[in-house]
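Quick one:
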Amino acid sequence: MEILWVLMALVMLGFVLLQISRRRRGAVGLVEPGHPDAADPANYGFAREEELDIRMPGPDQDLLDVLDLVQRTQDYRGAQQLLAGTEAKGERRWQRVQAFAGAASLELRQRPGGVGETPGGQWLRVWRAEAPKDAGGAAVHAEFLVQQAWRTATPGSDDFRIIMEEAKAACGEAALLAPGDPVPYIVELSVARGLGYSREEFEQLWLKILDRAPNHMGAHLAALQYWCEKWHGSRELAYSFAEAAAARAPRGSLLAAMPLFAVFEHLPEVNLVSGFYQSEVVTKAVHGALHAVHSAHRDDPMQAHVRHLLVFFLVRGERWAEAMNQLMVIDGHVGALPWTLSSDPAAEFAVYRALAVAGYEANGGSPATLPH
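Output:
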């Protein structure tokens, strides 16, 4: 019986892959590099797969320079200064807090420490010890604990709950150090999901964020997870949350793209419906996201998140030229959904990029016809 289920699953998987690779005239597929029919992404100036940066969704050279300095010298002061000079209510501060916490967490995983060995991420512990009243360090420490819980423990286990309770306390400490800063509360959104806050508790937390940064895209994406079917909500609640955010989005806000993220979070594990990615619900969400990126401020750091997800949907929907337009903006960085769900984000992104190039050229496109 188990063998039968495996065979059925393989047949269904093959059907799904066939649907992905189909195009309007014939079929678009992947071939080996160097094959006469191979479309070469390098012709468009795209980065090689091994050059793709998996750490961030888009460029932030100041952050990269400071991360390199901190990890090379194990001196936290560069990170402290960068966060102190970053707008508290802006999207970039939240992204930088995540990046510093992630770097410390990764260091600790690579060097857990032992007899006579200093554990990785020591600079963060020194930061908290030497500057306990520093709001940036407190926020990074809270996010570090959250990431440690998700990476090292099983949700629902005693170990997971212990780390999350510690993270919750750290969020409270960070909030006291910077009363107007939404970041500690945004960090707590992940705690709320992990510990299973009641809806009343979650709404109270969410109101604290809205009071401080009502149009914060990163906060909305974090909150959406709570309302998803796989956590503490449903498809209907997630769609309602995302559509309400889009409806009240001010001009130039990326909140208009929220429905696309809700659709992504509730994609069927196996899709046997031909044309699903051209369906009304997907098309409407894609159009909202396209409008959002076209009207958003050019320096909005959340644009990259939306554009990466657009590439996924535009390729699946066989909208090759539009996918290429997004790739021209975001290529080089792949630290965003949906690629980060893969064990090899760069390889996953490269497959979709190659499909976009192949589809574009199969329909008459070339480097010369693509707007720059």
